[in-house]
Protein backbone atom coordinates (compact mmCIF):
# COMPACT_ATOMS: atom_id res chain seq x y z
CA UNK A 1 0.00 0.00 0.00
CA UNK A 2 1.61 3.26 -1.13
CA UNK A 3 -0.54 5.74 0.81
CA UNK A 4 -2.29 6.12 4.16
CA UNK A 5 -5.61 7.67 3.18
CA UNK A 6 -8.16 5.93 5.40
CA UNK A 7 -7.90 4.00 8.63
CA UNK A 8 -9.77 0.98 7.32
CA UNK A 9 -7.34 0.58 4.43
CA UNK A 10 -4.97 -0.91 7.02
CA UNK A 11 -4.97 -4.50 8.23
CA UNK A 12 -4.53 -5.42 11.86
CA UNK A 13 -1.00 -6.61 11.00
CA UNK A 14 -0.26 -3.20 9.44
CA UNK A 15 -1.48 -1.40 12.55
CA UNK A 16 0.54 -3.64 14.85
CA UNK A 17 3.67 -3.06 12.76
CA UNK A 18 3.16 0.70 12.86
CA UNK A 19 2.49 0.71 16.59
CA UNK A 20 5.50 -1.50 17.33
CA UNK A 21 7.75 0.88 15.39
CA UNK A 22 6.14 3.94 16.95
CA UNK A 23 6.81 2.48 20.39
CA UNK A 24 10.46 2.04 19.38
CA UNK A 25 10.58 5.66 18.21
CA UNK A 26 9.03 6.76 21.51
CA UNK A 27 12.00 5.24 23.35
CA UNK A 28 14.63 6.09 20.71
CA UNK A 29 13.48 9.01 18.52
CA UNK A 30 16.72 9.02 16.52
CA UNK A 31 16.92 5.27 15.94
CA UNK A 32 16.58 5.80 12.17
CA UNK A 33 18.14 9.25 12.01
CA UNK A 34 19.75 8.68 8.60
CA UNK A 35 16.66 7.19 6.92
CA UNK A 36 15.70 10.46 5.19
CA UNK A 37 19.18 11.96 5.02
CA UNK A 38 19.36 14.54 2.19
CA UNK A 39 15.64 14.05 1.46
CA UNK A 40 12.60 16.25 1.96
CA UNK A 41 8.98 15.65 2.97
CA UNK A 42 6.33 18.18 1.95
CA UNK A 43 3.73 19.06 4.61
CA UNK A 44 0.73 20.85 3.08
CA UNK A 45 -2.01 22.14 5.37
CA UNK A 46 -5.11 24.13 4.53
CA UNK A 47 -6.47 23.77 8.08
CA UNK A 48 -4.81 25.27 11.17
CA UNK A 49 -2.78 22.83 13.23
CA UNK A 50 -0.77 22.59 16.42
CA UNK A 51 -0.10 18.90 17.09
CA UNK A 52 -0.17 17.65 13.50
CA UNK A 53 2.23 20.28 12.21
CA UNK A 54 4.67 19.98 15.10
CA UNK A 55 4.48 16.19 15.07
CA UNK A 56 4.99 15.97 11.31
CA UNK A 57 7.95 18.34 11.15
CA UNK A 58 9.60 16.69 14.16
CA UNK A 59 9.01 13.20 12.75
CA UNK A 60 10.73 14.14 9.49
CA UNK A 61 13.64 15.75 11.35
CA UNK A 62 14.08 12.69 13.59
CA UNK A 63 14.36 10.55 10.44
CA UNK A 64 17.12 12.83 9.21
CA UNK A 65 15.05 14.64 6.58
CA UNK A 66 14.05 18.23 5.93
CA UNK A 67 10.36 19.12 6.30
CA UNK A 68 9.00 21.67 3.82
CA UNK A 69 5.82 23.26 5.17
CA UNK A 70 3.52 24.95 2.66
CA UNK A 71 0.23 26.70 3.28
CA UNK A 72 -2.63 26.81 0.81
CA UNK A 73 -1.68 30.30 -0.36
CA UNK A 74 1.88 29.18 -1.09
CA UNK A 75 1.00 26.69 -3.84
CA UNK A 76 -0.35 27.32 -7.32
CA UNK A 77 -3.36 25.16 -6.44
CA UNK A 78 -5.02 28.37 -5.29
CA UNK A 79 -4.52 29.89 -8.73
CA UNK A 80 -5.93 27.06 -10.79
CA UNK A 81 -3.14 24.49 -11.08
CA UNK A 82 -4.65 21.03 -10.98
CA UNK A 83 -4.26 18.56 -8.14
CA UNK A 84 -2.75 16.09 -10.61
CA UNK A 85 -0.07 18.54 -11.73
CA UNK A 86 0.71 19.48 -8.14
CA UNK A 87 1.07 15.81 -7.18
CA UNK A 88 3.49 15.19 -10.03
CA UNK A 89 5.64 18.20 -9.14
CA UNK A 90 5.85 17.33 -5.43
CA UNK A 91 6.74 13.73 -6.34
CA UNK A 92 9.80 15.02 -8.16
CA UNK A 93 11.15 16.84 -5.13
CA UNK A 94 10.09 14.92 -2.02
CA UNK A 95 10.03 11.41 -0.57
CA UNK A 96 6.51 11.80 0.84
CA UNK A 97 3.60 14.23 1.18
CA UNK A 98 1.66 14.82 4.39
CA UNK A 99 -1.60 16.71 3.82
CA UNK A 100 -4.23 18.16 6.15
CA UNK A 101 -7.25 19.59 4.34
CA UNK A 102 -11.03 19.54 4.02
CA UNK A 103 -12.17 17.21 1.23
CA UNK A 104 -11.24 13.53 1.36
CA UNK A 105 -11.51 13.48 -2.43
CA UNK A 106 -8.65 16.01 -2.72
CA UNK A 107 -6.35 13.74 -0.73
CA UNK A 108 -7.35 10.74 -2.82
CA UNK A 109 -6.75 12.67 -6.07
CA UNK A 110 -3.29 13.70 -4.86
CA UNK A 111 -2.44 10.12 -3.97
CA UNK A 112 -3.71 8.80 -7.32
CA UNK A 113 -1.38 11.15 -9.20
CA UNK A 114 1.65 11.08 -6.89
CA UNK A 115 4.43 8.52 -7.17
CA UNK A 116 5.40 9.06 -3.51
CA UNK A 117 3.48 8.08 -0.36
CA UNK A 118 0.67 10.46 0.62
CA UNK A 119 -0.37 10.54 4.28
CA UNK A 120 -3.78 11.88 5.26
CA UNK A 121 -3.17 14.04 8.32
CA UNK A 122 -6.90 14.93 8.62
CA UNK A 123 -9.84 15.55 6.34
CA UNK A 124 -13.50 16.16 7.06
CA UNK A 125 -14.00 12.37 6.82
CA UNK A 126 -10.88 10.81 8.30
CA UNK A 127 -8.01 11.18 10.78
CA UNK A 128 -5.89 8.02 10.52
CA UNK A 129 -2.70 9.39 12.06
CA UNK A 130 -4.65 10.45 15.16
CA UNK A 131 -6.18 6.98 15.41
CA UNK A 132 -2.71 5.42 15.43
CA UNK A 133 -1.63 7.74 18.26
CA UNK A 134 -4.82 6.89 20.15
CA UNK A 135 -4.39 3.15 19.93
CA UNK A 136 -0.70 3.22 20.79
CA UNK A 137 -1.71 5.05 23.97
CA UNK A 138 -4.42 2.46 24.59
CA UNK A 139 -1.92 -0.35 24.06
CA UNK A 140 0.47 1.24 26.58
CA UNK A 141 -2.31 1.20 29.16
CA UNK A 142 -3.99 -2.15 28.46
CA UNK A 143 -1.65 -4.25 26.34
CA UNK A 144 -2.39 -5.90 22.99
CA UNK A 145 -5.41 -7.91 24.12
CA UNK A 146 -8.51 -5.81 23.47
CA UNK A 147 -10.96 -8.61 24.27
CA UNK A 148 -13.42 -8.09 27.11
CA UNK A 149 -12.91 -4.34 26.91
CA UNK A 150 -15.15 -1.59 25.59
CA UNK A 151 -13.80 1.53 23.93
CA UNK A 152 -16.28 4.41 23.86
CA UNK A 153 -16.40 7.66 21.91
CA UNK A 154 -19.02 10.24 22.92
CA UNK A 155 -20.07 13.53 21.31
CA UNK A 156 -20.28 14.74 17.74
CA UNK A 157 -20.40 12.04 15.06
CA UNK A 158 -17.56 13.72 13.17
CA UNK A 159 -14.39 12.50 11.45
CA UNK A 160 -12.95 11.25 14.74
CA UNK A 161 -16.08 9.27 15.58
CA UNK A 162 -15.94 7.65 12.15
CA UNK A 163 -12.22 6.97 12.39
CA UNK A 164 -12.74 5.30 15.76
CA UNK A 165 -15.35 3.01 14.26
CA UNK A 166 -12.91 2.09 11.52
CA UNK A 167 -9.98 1.40 13.82
CA UNK A 168 -12.16 -0.67 16.12
CA UNK A 169 -13.28 -2.77 13.17
CA UNK A 170 -9.70 -3.20 11.90
CA UNK A 171 -8.44 -4.33 15.32
CA UNK A 172 -11.39 -6.55 16.15
CA UNK A 173 -12.23 -4.43 19.19
CA UNK A 174 -15.54 -3.51 20.81
CA UNK A 175 -16.09 0.15 19.93
CA UNK A 176 -19.15 2.17 20.91
CA UNK A 177 -19.96 5.59 19.49
CA UNK A 178 -22.60 7.60 21.36
CA UNK A 179 -23.96 10.70 19.62
CA UNK A 180 -27.22 12.60 19.34
CA UNK A 181 -29.66 11.21 16.83
CA UNK A 182 -30.05 12.89 13.46
CA UNK A 183 -27.60 15.11 11.65
CA UNK A 184 -24.83 14.84 14.27
CA UNK A 185 -24.68 11.05 14.15
CA UNK A 186 -21.94 9.27 12.16
CA UNK A 187 -22.42 8.79 8.45
CA UNK A 188 -24.61 5.73 7.89
CA UNK A 189 -22.38 4.46 5.06
CA UNK A 190 -19.37 4.49 7.40
CA UNK A 191 -21.33 2.62 10.06
CA UNK A 192 -22.43 -0.02 7.54
CA UNK A 193 -18.89 -0.41 6.18
CA UNK A 194 -17.35 -0.82 9.63
CA UNK A 195 -20.02 -3.27 10.74
CA UNK A 196 -19.26 -5.42 7.70
CA UNK A 197 -15.52 -5.28 8.38
CA UNK A 198 -16.00 -6.07 12.09
CA UNK A 199 -17.81 -9.27 11.16
CA UNK A 200 -14.58 -10.49 9.54
CA UNK A 201 -12.24 -9.40 12.36
CA UNK A 202 -14.28 -10.38 15.39
CA UNK A 203 -14.97 -6.78 16.38
CA UNK A 204 -18.19 -5.29 17.69
CA UNK A 205 -19.47 -1.94 16.41
CA UNK A 206 -22.21 -0.11 18.27
CA UNK A 207 -23.77 3.26 17.54
CA UNK A 208 -26.12 4.51 20.23
CA UNK A 209 -27.76 7.67 21.54
CA UNK A 210 -27.63 6.48 25.17
CA UNK A 211 -24.46 8.06 26.54
CA UNK A 212 -24.68 6.49 30.00
CA UNK A 213 -25.00 2.99 28.60
CA UNK A 214 -22.08 3.68 26.25
CA UNK A 215 -19.83 4.79 29.12
CA UNK A 216 -20.77 2.05 31.57
CA UNK A 217 -17.75 -0.25 32.13
CA UNK A 218 -15.77 1.39 29.31
CA UNK A 219 -11.99 1.10 29.34
CA UNK A 220 -11.76 4.35 27.39
CA UNK A 221 -14.05 7.34 27.21
CA UNK A 222 -12.99 9.51 24.28
CA UNK A 223 -14.35 12.80 22.99
CA UNK A 224 -13.60 15.63 20.56
CA UNK A 225 -14.58 19.28 20.22
CA UNK A 226 -18.22 19.89 19.41
CA UNK A 227 -17.59 22.53 16.74
CA UNK A 228 -15.14 21.24 14.15
CA UNK A 229 -13.28 23.31 11.57
CA UNK A 230 -15.67 24.02 8.73
CA UNK A 231 -18.83 23.63 10.82
CA UNK A 232 -21.43 26.32 10.25
CA UNK A 233 -21.60 28.89 13.04
CA UNK A 234 -25.33 29.06 12.34
CA UNK A 235 -25.59 25.57 13.83
CA UNK A 236 -23.67 26.37 17.01
CA UNK A 237 -26.53 26.94 19.46
CA UNK A 238 -28.55 23.98 18.18
CA UNK A 239 -25.54 21.68 18.14
CA UNK A 240 -24.32 22.57 21.62
CA UNK A 241 -27.83 22.11 23.01
CA UNK A 242 -28.08 18.68 21.38
CA UNK A 243 -24.68 17.62 22.71
CA UNK A 244 -25.12 18.87 26.28
CA UNK A 245 -25.71 15.46 27.86
CA UNK A 246 -22.64 14.08 26.06
CA UNK A 247 -20.20 16.28 27.97
CA UNK A 248 -17.62 14.10 29.72
CA UNK A 249 -17.88 14.95 33.40
CA UNK A 250 -16.89 13.12 36.56
CA UNK A 251 -20.37 11.58 36.56
CA UNK A 252 -19.74 9.92 33.19
CA UNK A 253 -16.19 8.90 34.08
CA UNK A 254 -17.50 7.25 37.25
CA UNK A 255 -19.47 4.87 35.00
CA UNK A 256 -16.27 3.66 33.33
CA UNK A 257 -14.30 0.58 34.32
CA UNK A 258 -12.15 0.96 37.43
CA UNK A 259 -9.04 1.25 35.24
CA UNK A 260 -10.78 3.35 32.59
CA UNK A 261 -8.99 6.33 31.06
CA UNK A 262 -10.04 9.57 29.39
CA UNK A 263 -8.81 10.50 25.90
CA UNK A 264 -9.20 13.55 23.65
CA UNK A 265 -7.53 14.36 20.34
CA UNK A 266 -7.26 18.07 21.28
CA UNK A 267 -7.67 21.02 21.20
CA UNK A 268 -10.12 20.86 24.10
CA UNK A 269 -12.80 23.28 25.20
CA UNK A 270 -13.16 22.83 28.95
CA UNK A 271 -16.74 23.32 30.01
CA UNK A 272 -18.13 22.06 26.69
CA UNK A 273 -17.22 18.52 25.59
CA UNK A 274 -15.21 17.83 28.77
CA UNK A 275 -14.92 19.26 32.25
CA UNK A 276 -11.61 20.58 33.55
CA UNK A 277 -11.75 18.05 36.40
CA UNK A 278 -11.69 15.19 33.88
CA UNK A 279 -9.16 16.36 31.29
CA UNK A 280 -6.75 17.64 33.94
CA UNK A 281 -7.46 14.77 36.31
CA UNK A 282 -5.60 11.54 37.10
CA UNK A 283 -7.46 9.38 34.55
CA UNK A 284 -6.58 11.62 31.61
CA UNK A 285 -3.87 10.43 29.20
CA UNK A 286 -4.28 13.23 26.65
CA UNK A 287 -0.69 14.49 26.89
CA UNK A 288 0.83 11.06 26.23
CA UNK A 289 -1.69 10.64 23.42
CA UNK A 290 -0.57 13.97 21.92
CA UNK A 291 3.08 12.92 22.24
CA UNK A 292 2.35 9.86 20.13
CA UNK A 293 1.26 12.00 17.20
CA UNK A 294 4.99 12.31 16.48
CA UNK A 295 5.93 8.70 17.07
CA UNK A 296 3.15 7.32 14.87
CA UNK A 297 3.66 9.77 11.99
CA UNK A 298 7.36 8.89 12.14
CA UNK A 299 6.45 5.19 11.93
CA UNK A 300 4.03 5.80 9.05
CA UNK A 301 6.66 7.66 7.05
CA UNK A 302 9.25 4.99 7.74
CA UNK A 303 7.12 2.03 6.69
CA UNK A 304 5.28 3.63 3.77
CA UNK A 305 8.49 4.85 2.17
CA UNK A 306 10.03 1.38 2.64
CA UNK A 307 6.93 -0.25 1.15
CA UNK A 308 6.21 -2.40 4.22
CA UNK A 309 2.46 -1.76 4.54
CA UNK A 310 0.39 -4.48 2.86
CA UNK A 311 -2.98 -2.76 3.06
CA UNK A 312 -6.48 -4.14 2.89
CA UNK A 313 -6.90 -3.02 -0.74
CA UNK A 314 -3.50 -4.14 -2.03
TrEMBL record:
The keyword Acyltransferase does not apply. Residues 2-140 form the Aspartate/ornithine carbamoyltransferase carbamoyl-P binding domain. Residues 148-303 form the Aspartate/ornithine carbamoyltransferase Asp/Orn-binding domain. GO terms for biological process: citrulline biosynthetic process; L-arginine biosynthetic process via ornithine. Keywords: Transferase. SUPFAM superfamilies: Aspartate/ornithine carbamoyltransferase (SSF53671). GO terms for molecular function: amino acid binding; ornithine carbamoyltransferase activity. This is Unannotated protein.
Amino acid sequence: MKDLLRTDHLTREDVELLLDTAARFADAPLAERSFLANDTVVIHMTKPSTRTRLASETAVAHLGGTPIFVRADELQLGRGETIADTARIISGYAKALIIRTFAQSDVEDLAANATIPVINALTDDEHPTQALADWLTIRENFGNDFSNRKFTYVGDGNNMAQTWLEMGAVLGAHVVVATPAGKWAPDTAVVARTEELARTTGGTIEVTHDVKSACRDASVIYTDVWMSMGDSEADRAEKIAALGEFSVTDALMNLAASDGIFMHCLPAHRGEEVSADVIDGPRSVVWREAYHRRTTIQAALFHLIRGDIKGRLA
